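Q: I'm writing up a methods section and want to include an example of the input and output format. Could you take the sequence below and give the corresponding predicted structure tokens, formatted cleanly so I can copy it straight into the document?
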Amino acid sequence: MNPIEDKDEINLIEFASVLWLQKKLLFTSFFFIFFLSFLATFFITPKYESSAILLERNSNSSGSMDGVSSLARIAGFQISENKEMTNSELAIELLESFDFFYENLFSDPEFLDSISFKGINKDPKKAHKFFKDNFTFVENNKNDILIFSFSSYTPLSSKKILDLVISKLNSSILQRQIIESSNSIDFLQEKLLLTNVPEVKSAIADLIKNHTRRLMLSSINDQFVFEILDSPKEPLRKSHPSRILIALISSLTISLLLAAVLFVFHFSNKRLEFSLYPLNLKINDISQ
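A: Here is the clean output for your methods example:
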């Protein structure tokens, strides 16, 4: 047998024998820490998470400008081909923005009432940090789905805040699109008067028609940007803390540390002697 492999095998056997000799101490400490950690979790304020599923209904269609831009260059004027952000990308940027938070959420009495705990609603920076720490989103680019989630200290506040976020986000992006479409119509109508190329005039007329339709739809539908597929609901169960998981991780961590200490004692020719009846823990020198 290879000497290195033989040495490794001896070390593993030695490792197992040390743990087996101290099994009573290891099992006792594991269950004791598990019990203490489980009790400690009752002092952690629970949180409740509400979620919503949204569908992006109207992506920015910069691709439709490509053909018009080519024809426009032939006609002697330029139409911008800059790629624009999708509504999902814009939504994510806005939700990260302090300005959006301050202007749309922190200024809303309903939002402030929902975060009235611990004086958070008096400081916009603390309120923004609380919002960012407790708001999560998942984006699925394949089917234009967004999943928003928000955690708060009461089921009602988590639902109300998420409802408000979706409403403000829809409203903010919608206003941007209305302004953009109005400016685009004005711009395209100017260019329409400057060209005599039939193909360009037809393409520009189609773009004007699309922007006009967009304006009309946006004025009659409050979910023009994001359609709510599954609305926020009051959660029935807390999402945090996970008491068993916290207790289990704490117990395993302490047990591993204790095992390391036992090995240090073993190679120092010392041994921990432990008994439950009577409760006793002492260190014996086994070098003699």
